[in-house]
Specification:
Transposase Inhibitor Protein From Tn5, Chain A, domain 1, 15 helices, 10-stranded mixed sheet, 40% helix
Length: 440
């Protein structure tokens, strides 16, 4: 861990600043609880991974006159679940985008993202859509509506954005783009439109040509590729034959021309057995039919078990990167790293205590999207602390599993009062006998 550390209090200041800037939407004398308190209370539940956290803290306040919701998260007065939902339902989730970028820039500025570069030397930004709510009864104006087997189905989907790197165990969450009905649009929103909005809104956060976008085959088409180039972003996108017939037809023709399709083979030991990596690549292929087709470069990787001949892996990508014998390995390695969206992003959110697909509250307007934004911020803060807070990282490593860490955190905050999150971490650090506390 290099660079200056990041403190939990710094991250919380970023969140509180955005919550404090949410416009008041209530009318008349109806302001006993602050909107910011509702946001902080919901965030506290997600950060602690404990649905009853606020109930425990309300009980602690009644018995002892203080509580951890206030000392750790800055909740001045704890609203009830119903009050929290009512206060957050009208809030536009766009207002919660800034803490994502502010946290990312804080981590980058402190040197915590030095190793978050792909083999191509750029920042890898993976974009992937997923569903986080589905029901045949519960719905709101922002639900996606589909008809299946004669039944109406309501759902919410989101395009998740994360920064990852091939050798890093964490992903850094960026602002999501929700797939919801858009003003003035006749058709339902979709993932293809969401990625365009995300790029238009957020590409400016990266220096020109410093980032590479990774997506699945759904987005590997001319409108998205052209948009990425227009915003000075590189791309490495999964490319399947069925969805790119013109490209693969041209590729087939090139295989008949000597030297038109490059190839190389590498043998390596993976720790268990030898495997053979087979690369192929070609340049300036049409991404679609027609004279206006964008020309892209293409590469393919097959991994073969040397002893058995079994194919262990196969994928292909289209890209704007120049491909040759020296660059194809880096491009394929970065393209292959997109699995981190699934393994370190979506799967962690669904299976490691965040309960990504749980209905925490649906509301009539934006509640579902606001709550998911706060959950993703909790995920981001956990990652930031693991990357850039020595004490937090040491405790997580000592306790080994995520479940054990949060079980201890929940137990300690249920029965004991802590002046600050640093106070809590210091206690855990001492009790685990991890040695002298690290310098701030």
């Amino acid at each position: 861990m290099s660079g200056k550390q990041v403190k939990f209090s710094e991250l919380m200041r970023l969140l509180r600043a955005s919550l404090a800037g949410i416009p008041e939407h209530r009318r008349g004398d109806n302001g006993h609880y602050e909107i910011a308190d509702a946001g902080l209370a919901a965030f506290a539940v997600f950060f602690m991974q404990e649905p009853s956290f606020l109930a425990y803290q309300t009980n602690m306040q009644a018995k002892h006159g203080h509580n951890n919701a206030k000392s750790l998260f800055g909740v001045a007065e704890i609203p009830s679940d119903g009050q929290t939902r009512n206060l957050l339902d009208p809030v536009d989730p766009v207002l919660l985008a800034e803490p994502f970028w502010a946290s990312y820039e804080l981590l980058a500025g402190r040197g915590a993202l030095q190793d978050y570069r792909g083999a191509t030397g750029s920042r890898l930004v993976s974009l992937d859509g997923t569903q986080y709510f589905a029901s045949q009864k519960v719905h709101c104006d922002n639900c996606r509506v589909t008809l299946r087997d004669g039944r109406t189905r309501y759902s919410h989907q989101v395009l998740l954005a994360v920064v990852g790197a091939p050798e890093q165990p964490h992903v850094v969450c960026l602002p999501p783009e929700f797939i919801t009905p858009q003003d003035g649009a006749e058709k339902q929103d979709c993932e293809q439109q969401a990625i365009k909005r995300w790029v238009k809104q957020h590409a400016r956060r990266f220096a020109p040509w410093s980032a590479t976008v990774l997506t699945d085959d759904l987005h590997a088409h001319q409108p998205v590729c052209q948009l990425l180039l227009d915003h000075q972003l590189h791309f490495i996108l999964t490319c399947k034959p069925d969805s790119h017939p013109a490209l693969y037809e041209e590729l087939q023709l090139l295989t008949r021309v000597a030297g038109a399709v490059g190839s190389k083979q590498i043998r390596r030991w993976n720790g268990r057995h030898h495997e053979v990596l087979q690369y192929r690549w070609a340049s300036t292929l049409p991404i679609r039919e027609g004279p206006a087709a964008l020309k892209v470069n293409w590469c393919e990787l097959r991994v073969i078990h040397q002893e058995s001949g079994e194919q262990l892996y196969h994928n292909a990508w289209l890209t704007d990167y120049t491909l040759d014998e020296t660059t194809v390995e880096a491009v394929a390695q970065d393209g292959r790293s997109r699995w981190k969206v699934e393994n370190e992003g979506i799967n962690v959110l669904k299976q490691r205590g965040y309960h990504f697909e749980h209905n925490y509250g649906h509301g009539n307007q934006h509640l579902s999207t606001v709550l998911l934004s706060l959950l993703l911020l909790a995920f981001l803060f956990h990652t930031a602390l693991d990357l850039a807070c020595l004490m937090y990282h040491a405790i997580r490593q000592k306790l080994r599993t995520r479940r054990k860490f949060f079980d201890d955190l929940r137990g300690l905050t249920t029965y004991l009062y802590w002046r600050s999150f640093q106070h809590l971490l210091s206690f855990m650090y001492r009790q685990l006998e991890l040695g002298p506390p690290p310098a701030a």
